[in-house]
Amino acid sequence: MSTVVPQGRRPRRITAGRIGVYAFLITAALFFLLPLWIMLVTSLKPMEEIRLGNILAWPASLTVDAWTKAWSSACTGLECNGISVGFWNSVRILIPSVILSIAAGAVNGYALSFWRVKGANVLFGILLLGAFIPYQVFLYPLVRIFSMTGIYNSLPCIVIVHVIFGLPTMTLLFRNYYAGLPLELFKAARIDGGGFWTIFLRVMLPMSIPMLVVATILQTTGIWNDFIFGLTFAGRANLPMTVQLNNIVHSTQGERAYNVDMAATMLAALVPLVVYFVSGRWFVRGIAAGAVKG
Amino acid sequence: MDTVSIQIPSARAASTQGRRLLRTRLPVALALLPTALVVLVVYIGCMVWTVRLSFTSSTLLPKLDWVGLTQYSRLFMNDRFVTSAENIVIFGVLFIAGCLILGFLLAVFIDQNVRAEGAFRTVFLYPYAMSFVVTGVAWQWFLNPGLGLQKVVRDLGFPNFTFDWIVSQDMAIYTIVIAGLWHGSGLTMAILLAGLRGVDEDLWKAAKVDGVPTWRVYTSIVLPLLRPMIVTATVLLATSVVKLYDLVVAMTMGGPGIATEVPAKFVMDHLFERNNIALGTAAATIMLICVVSILAPWVYARYVRPQGRHA
Amino acid sequence: MGSVSVRDVSVAFEAFRVFDGLNLDIEEGEFIVLLGPSGCGKSTLLNAIAGLLDVASGQIWIGGRNVTWEEPKDRGIAMVFQSYALYPRMSVRENMSFGLKMAKTPRPEIEKRVKHAADLLQIAHLLDRRPDQLSGGQRQRVAIGRALVRDAAVFLFDEPLSNLDAKLRNELRVEIKRLHARLGKTTMVYVTHDQIEAMTLADRIVVLKEQKVQQIGTPGEIYHRPANLFVAGFVGSPQMNFIQGRIGMNNGVPEFVKGQRRLSLANYQFGGRPPVDQDIVLGIRPEHLEIATNGTWSDLMIDIVEPMGADTVIWCSDHEGSVQVRTNSSRRAVPGESLTLSVDVSQVSLFSPETGDRL
């Protein structure tokens, strides 16, 4: 029996439970980090070392050859200009798509939350349901429509597709945000004589900065990571990075250059990863906001 | 007695009212017009078109004949499609259940007042920022039996260790599940952790005063409170199950053989490579029916029933 | 059994010390109210007593036992929270019996205690409902019931009535007081920022501000002999009037001087020697000022009249400042009218303007 008189802070014991908590978390962290680590070390090794060595080991002879090759001379099918082509294609697709889809979502969200329009709720309801319908249901007729209008397989075509399929999430995001603003604000602006666009541009948009940031994060990662639309609508000249990456990995003749594959993969993951690490909590907020579908 | 003036709407008043209505309503209508068109043409029009095509004998080019359910009976005789359907069920169940369990455990463990909480959160969630193509390529390389995980373990002194699921007919689909879990459980963790942080602190105190063990608080008190977050996460995960395509293409190309074919890939292949539009759209229609039948009870529970109760 | 003793306790958050060497002794069966504005540390103190918060130094004794290192459940306490903290998706009965089940209490005993508590609080008819089917007042009754079944010697209340509307708050306040009387030897420690709750419930009030005890005393002492300016201003509504002035001497008798106005302090019990010729703050409650025909202070002008039903508050002023007077509502008062006040000198308090302490 100890004769210590209990006084002050309870003595902290390092319990088995505590160790268990950290053991679980660290094991999980390793599981999540492992693929990234493997991609990184593989991309920095020469092929001989990959063939012989340990996939987990740090490269014995470190080289960035694979990176330069992946960037500028890896073959995506018949052409061998590296994944840089895809990178720039993705940038050209990304910028107009992000801007237009956010603008559309903001206007829709604003119109739906503050202005009473007949049929608006039906419109919004169908849009929301549309978010859950598999894309495969829409793809073929869309291809036909774009072929008929003559813009199939072009930059405008892929941008329009991204805007169309970004509508549900973007509209929902802004509608929920504006629905959370006090209606009195809108009423005051009406009494002060503001019209539809004046109120939107002068009152609502300046208050939407947080949502604009969230929407930008969401759309940037979403559109950059898209594969199926790029594959179907962009056309050979505009294939985005994800499609190019898949082509590099799956169309190599002869022996596969794993180091080049991994360098290309890392390059393709770079933009969303940078967005993720820079945005931090905003990213989580973005998914949480996008998550309240319906 | 005070006189009460009664306004009689004159023709003039009506016309100013009309003009006012026009002035306020017109911009709203114009602003919503593009969306309305998209809904009408794409979300409704294309859907109807696809369904219609599934009743035709279209191959390379669309035809508008009528062959009834011929394509559907062909579809269910098609090994590739049957395998796809089985695969998506296996993947769906394991992926959703796995993400929820792993995500919940991660959230609970992170909630234990641990050091470097932010670092753990960042590590668990970063895969979600990456595309399925990247995920697929990375896991394909890691699980490659010749140079990947299997070789590492064998070199460590277990020469009989075998982990060749990715090239095995029976097991390849489970490697897709593993890659999916890696990609998606961080998202579940983030949603559930936000839910855990929203739990009233007094509730924890009350349970402590009552002497309820921590694990019991989680199962009996906190878990029921997380139901909305669990529903949200499930819906979100379910939509990515239906869309499963890129991951398979990047990781296994549907192989070995047809072992990891999935419906989305079946549709894409038949529409754009195998020139069998009718069969492809029939498969797409089946996907649509499945999604609607899963979605309907949720929509009913969430929107229709509560309205009925309040009315 | 139910005495509580806080001995030299310090609580720290990270590097920030919330309390430093706090002492408080609570007798068995006493009803103690910790009163103060938000952020004064009253809830922190309560959580420390409950064991929900580790103390950095010092000891906590409950029922003659040193419980500094004990788990909350082993301290012989029960607690009621502001947000009710009822377990969701459990019926009222399950809510009340959950803790007992955890403690492996025999089933018949649980049933007996739940029935007893439910009868006492008149919630027997709600036992099979779930919290989301109850009103706020009913929820708080259930929360009290959950505390009751623990048969604890000490009850801790953390702002239990703050989430209720005014009418319910009054009702439950009386109920809690009745409960305390009926339970007899049960000690209650009650945290609130509401001075009326404190005055009506407490045997003794502990007034806290910025993690420091300002005064400990019976409601009467707190009200009539506030220890400092903060206590004087915090307790009482309408607020005590504070008048800046000076201490003068008139034939060896100290008097309060403000401009032309004077007030003899012959009957005031100074804590020490009267600080002659120094600045001073005189505090007088509105009900201790009376409208009189030949009072001490004349030529005041009525500003605003606030009828409150039972009585009326009259704001009156001269060019130097304003005071509130509480009078019988039968008296008619019109803004602009001039009046004369008499001061009940036995009821004034004097404070040092520098330290704020009572003189």
From TrEMBL, chain A:
Residues annotated as transmembrane: 21-40, 93-115, 122-139, 151-174, 195-218, 262-284
Gene3D superfamilies for this protein: MetI-like (1.10.3720.10)
Compartments it resides in: Cell membrane
Domain of life the protein comes from: Bacteria
InterPro entries assigned: MetI-like, MetI-like_sf
Membrane topology: Multi-pass membrane protein
Keywords: Membrane, Transmembrane, Transmembrane helix, Transport
Domain ABC transmembrane type-1: 87-279
Principal location: membrane
SUPFAM superfamilies according to UniProt: MetI-like (SSF161098)
CDD domains in UniProt: TM_PBP2
Keyword 4Fe-4S: no
Family: Belongs to the binding-protein-dependent transport system permease family.
Name of protein: Carbohydrate ABC transporter permease
Lineage: Bacteria, Pseudomonadati, Pseudomonadota, Alphaproteobacteria, Hyphomicrobiales
Automatic annotation (TrEMBL), chain B:
Classification via Pfam families: BPD_transp_1 (PF00528)
Sequence intervals crossing the membrane: 28-51, 88-110, 122-142, 171-196, 217-242, 277-300
Sequence ranges assigned to domain ABC transmembrane type-1 in this UniProt record: 85-300
Membrane-related topology note: Multi-pass membrane protein
Keywords of this entry: Cell membrane, Membrane, Transmembrane, Transmembrane helix, Transport
Classification via Gene3D superfamilies: MetI-like
UniProt main location, coarse: membrane
Cellular location(s): Cell membrane
Family of the protein in this entry: Belongs to the binding-protein-dependent transport system permease family.
Protein name: Sugar ABC transporter permease
The species this protein was found in: Microvirga puerhi
From TrEMBL, chain C:
GO molecular function: ATP binding
Keyword Nucleotide-binding applies: yes
SMART domains membership: AAA
Keyword annotations of the record: ATP-binding, Nucleotide-binding, Transport
Presence of keyword Transmembrane helix: no
NCBIfam families: PRK11650.1
Taxonomy of the source species: Bacteria, Pseudomonadati, Pseudomonadota, Alphaproteobacteria, Hyphomicrobiales
Residues in ABC transporter domain copies: 4-235
Superkingdom of origin organism: Bacteria
Identification of the protein by name: Sn-glycerol-3-phosphate ABC transporter ATP-binding protein UgpC
Gene3D superfamilies in alphabetical order: 2.40.50.100, Nucleic acid-binding proteins (2.40.50.140), P-loop containing nucleotide triphosphate hydrolases (3.40.50.300)
One Pfam family, short name: ABC_tran
The family this protein is said to belong to: Belongs to the ABC transporter superfamily.
PROSITE patterns xrefs: ABC_TRANSPORTER_1, ABC_TRANSPORTER_2
